[in-house]
């Protein structure tokens, strides 16, 4: 194969992730021609849909159209934020490579110093994630939460310009990939150490046809096995629960002495339903 077509969403973060993938592929295969093809997904079009309770739109909200393009043969591979990729893939598709994981932490972007402890009494924090909302309220039951949609720059601008919002929860991986210059002056960003991330958070997954031996061979050169072991443990746990992206499950797998150790918790009904380690 002399050329590979990478399908991607059109958001700034998706494009950065696709270009990171392309950069790794060029290093591994200097003669390979790489084309980037932007495909708009349902999640990009339906900004009215709540991510914490998407209902029938949940499955493949940010992936379905990319997968359809794969099955039609319009692209060779689709680049995803792994946390957005359903644990059950359509027939004939597989994850051909997982890149080395970025920081999987969640962060608070706030107008105040001191992280979540420094937020004002009964302050309002924006997040569209039920997992983040429930964990935040366990830390600070006095706080209120508000829905928010849009790319990271849009959400940060809404926080800065809002007269009611005090904070916003973001993925540290997104900040690292897009760069600290995206953070407006006057906004402080701190890692929420107590918060468990979503399964697969911070990792990039590349999906392709399971019978496309040439694409699988090309992708194998950029696959990071330790990351794959960890995120697969997290995603397998989510799959066993029958949950999708909206299930308020926090999970973090690490490798210690060659073995995968998983810590996971389900955050709902006002508390931690269970904790698995």
In short:
The chain is of the alpha/beta class.
**CATH level 3 topology of the largest domain:** D-Maltodextrin-Binding Protein, domain 2
Name the quaternary structure: single chain
Ranges where pLDDT stays below 50 over 5 or more residues in a row are none
Task: Label the overall shape.
Answer: globular
Radius of gyration: 19 Å
CATH homologous superfamily label of the largest domain:
Periplasmic binding protein-like II
Give the strand tally.
Answer: 13
Strand content: 25-35%
- Span from first to last CA? 44 Å
What is the residue-averaged pLDDT?
90
Give the number of helices.
8
The major beta sheet can be summarized as: 5 strands, mixed
Tally of distinct domains: 2
Second rung of CATH, namely the architecture of the largest domain? 3-Layer(aba) Sandwich
Q: Helical proportion?
A: 25-40%
- Order of secondary-structure elements: EHEHHEEEEHEHEHEEHHEEE
Query: Which structural class fits the helix and strand makeup?
Result: alpha/beta
CATH class of the largest domain: Alpha Beta
Strand arrangement, largest sheet?
2-1-3-10-4
Structure, explained:
29% of the residues lie in helices and 26% in strands. With 277 residues, the chain is of the alpha/beta class. It folds into two domains: 3-102 and 199-246, Periplasmic binding protein-like II (D-Maltodextrin-Binding Protein, domain 2); 106-191, D-Maltodextrin-Binding Protein, domain 2. The longest helix is centred in the N-terminal third of the chain and has 17 residues, at 12-28. The relative contact order is 0.18.
